[in-house]
Description:
The protein is mostly beta strands. It has one domain (2-243): Galactose-binding domain-like (Jelly Rolls). The chain contains no helices and 16 strands.
Amino acid sequence: MCFSRVIPLLVSLTIPSWGGIVNGSFEDPFVPVFGLFAPGDPIGGQVGTWRAVGSGNVILLNSAYTEPRPPEEVRFDAQDGVQALDLTGPGNQLEFGNITGIRQLVATVPNQQYVLSFYVGNQDSTIVPRYQLPSSIRLFLDLTGTLSGHQSVGVFTNSDSTLNNVNWKLFTYTFEAQANFTDIMFSNETYGGEEPFDDPGDNYAGLDNVSLQSKQGNDDPIPEPGSVLLLAGGLAAVLLRRRIR
Length: 245
């Protein structure tokens, strides 16, 4: 079944003068076990940080979070630091028709190439049925800097496994900036199952250690635009297409 959703984006951001990704390893805010972030919520207190988008919550997990299944336990170790994001939200929100994701606006130089790197986490457990399928995340980029030109550039799937823990797989995507700002958005694309509940789907799509590297021939970073205050009222509609089996 195919369906689409409109994701509202309410923008009031200051672009850091150094460009790049803010809070790429999701260490801010610190959560002792886990924290929920609703659409529009900033993830952390840093200027220019991520914001949750969509119609459902995302979850920030500390590596201290476990799911005991005596005599074993299912662990959720982060790829970098002690915290990582789960884009499926409570359960898997895609099962209920909810789109869940995050976005961040970064400063870029037109006609400059950038490499976006990120890790997708796949939980593999033989003792919890809802952690036995691959984890997928969709990447959107708005190269126009208008917050209304998002395009899906691919779905990134990790089907590798680390028993009863998260397996982290590195992905990269190279793009050429077209404007002084580029909006980066990740959304959950992990199969959420269907009614009845004997089709369980999968309940985890980890994201961690997101970074953006500018290139100038020798791959060295180049100076980024200065600090800019962007204030925009209203809603920018982004149409996301989804396919469920």
